[in-house]
Design a protein that fits this description.
The chain starts with 5 loop residues before the first strand and ends with a helix. The chain is globular and about 80 Å long. Helix content is 36%, strand content 23%. Helix 5 crosses helix 7, helix 7 packs across helix 9 and helix 10 packs across helix 12. About 4% of the residues have low confidence. The strands form four sheets. Strands 2, 3, 4, 5, 6, 7 and 8 form a seven-stranded mixed β-sheet that branches. The protein folds into four domains: 87 residues, PRC-barrel domain (SH3 type barrels), CATH 2.30.30; 67 residues; 96 residues, Alpha Horseshoe (MgtE N-terminal fold); 114 residues, Roll (CBS-domain), CATH 3.10.580. Strand 4 and strand 5 form a beta hairpin. With 440 residues, it is of the alpha+beta class.
């Protein structure tokens, strides 16, 4: 991240947010923080106001520059309305004007601004300094140092910045879950008592809860979804990948599933309905409708920027598909695909249409799971395109979706080892043969 080493939160408020091309896309309203056990707080993102007075969350990892008068992002925005979690606090909304105690014993002060600095090793932004104004003098000694004196102090020079000890402990407890991978958090949730589980689920963002649900056993997923308010359950489905949302809806009682489908955003629901039309154990039922798709004239550099986005899974990032317009599924004709390793070897300005693999293996949406698995194993693939009879791209099947369907239903709860090769990789060839033997 190319930035100054320090910025002040209050001075950042109202600053314009720009994309890499210099177009203004909103303005900064606040900084989202998570308190740490080290008595400071780590910035996780910015609250940004976009046209229409809507406030959204911009992860700090998507900010490429912070300077006087402007903040520049990588250009990708999630337009869902900002929802603050209980583990989070706002630098401006929560900390400014908060009364703190000066640890040198000279009295109390009110926070007027918060400075954040970037660690040169971890690249994380943390509170380092506070600009404070002394509280009204209450004794003769304090009067000597001045009633309205302002000063800049270190974050360790005050106490009470994050509330009482009990409040801070609760925030840290919730924050301790924020860095866990979804699969690890799912394991913890699975072991919790129902009340504690409900508390954690309530505090998770819709997107993160969607990731966690994908990692839980089916009975737990269904239990949690049935315990949520219908509107929130639909919002969670909106936040999930369409293929995962379709799988979850199939597991729910039909009346509930249909109700949630009608409550989803129309565009998200349309993708899910397309997937629900296919049998679960076909390429159409396995695929995601949101692979990485570009036009043939797209530069290699832009393709690399697409696959580098944090929210893209490694399996999806492995392949970029080149299609004629339209570039949303179902697309125009699929011209081919380019593996990310091939992209890395090419000149950044070269059009991706010049380097596509025109002999790429494709699957029909009606192809059975064992055919998909066999093709992946034969050609060592982690992603396969799914096309219709006119060679239009409908989606792609990734290896993680295949494994979810070929492993035993209780694999998340079992300690039995999964079949692997001598290098420790999942043995897709063995799994493909096992499926064929079962059907034979």
């Amino acid at each position: 991240m190319s930035t100054h080493e320090r910025f002040f939160a209050a001075r950042l408020a109202g600053t314009g947010l720009f994309d890499p091309l210099g177009d203004r896309i909103g303005k900064v309203r606040d900084v989202v923080l998570i308190p740490q056990e080290t008595h400071t707080a780590r910035a996780v993102g910015l609250v940004v106001e976009v046209p229409g007075k809507k406030r959204i969350f911009l992860p700090i990892t998507k900010v490429t520059s912070i300077s006087t008068g402007q903040v520049i992002s990588d250009g990708s925005l999630n337009m869902r309305r900002f929802e603050m979690r209980k583990s989070e606090i706002l630098a401006i909304g929560d900390l400014l004007d908060r009364e703190v105690s000066l640890v040198d014993g000279t009295g109390n002060a009110f926070v007027e601004d918060v400075a954040l600095e970037q660690d040169q090793i971890s690249k994380e932004w943390e509170i380092s300094k506070l600009h404070v104004r002394r509280a009204k003098a209450k004794n003769a000694f304090s009067k000597l140092v001045g009633r309205n004196e302002t000063l800049t102090v270190g974050v360790d020079d005050v106490s009470g910045l994050f509330g009482t000890q009990a409040e801070q402990s609760a925030q840290i407890l919730l924050a301790s879950y924020s860095d866990l991978k979804p699969a690890d958090l799912a394991d913890l949730i699975q072991e919790m008592e129902p009340k504690r589980r409900a508390d954690i689920v309530r505090d998770l963002s819709n997107e993160r809860l969607g990731w966690v649900l994908e990692e839980l056993p089916e009975d737990t997923r269904v239990e949690l979804m049935q315990g949520l308010e219908s509107e929130r359950a639909a919002d969670i489905l909106d936040a999930m990948d369409p293929d995962d949302a379709a799988d979850l809806l199939q597991e729910l009682p039909e009346p509930l599933g249909q109700d949630l489908l009608t409550r989803m955003e129309p565009e998200e629901a349309e993708d899910v309905r397309r997937l629900l039309a296919y049998d679960e154990y076909t390429a159409g039922g396995l695929m995601t409708t949101e692979p990485l798709i570009v036009a043939p004239e797209t530069p290699v550099a832009h393709c690399l920027a697409l696959i580098s986005r944090e929210e893209i899974s490694p399996a999806l990032a492995s392949m970029v598909y080149v299609c004629r317009q339209p570039l949303e599924t179902p697309t125009g004709k699929l011209l081919g695909g380019v593996h990310f390793q091939h992209l890395l070897r090419e000149r950044p300005e070269r059009p991706v249409g010049e380097i596509i693999d025109q002999d790429q293996v494709t699957m029909a949406p009606t192809s059975h799971l064992h055919d998909v698995t066999r093709e992946m194993a034969t050609y060592n693939l982690v992603s396969l395109p799914v096309v219709d009879k006119d060679s239009r791209l409908l989606g792609s099947v990734t290896v993680d979706d295949v494994l979810d369907h070929v492993l035993p239903e209780d694999w998340r709860e079992s300690d039995e080892p999964v079949a692997t090769t001598t290098t420790g990789q999942i043995d897709l060839t063995g799994i493909a043969k096992a499926i064929s033997d079962q059907e034979g």
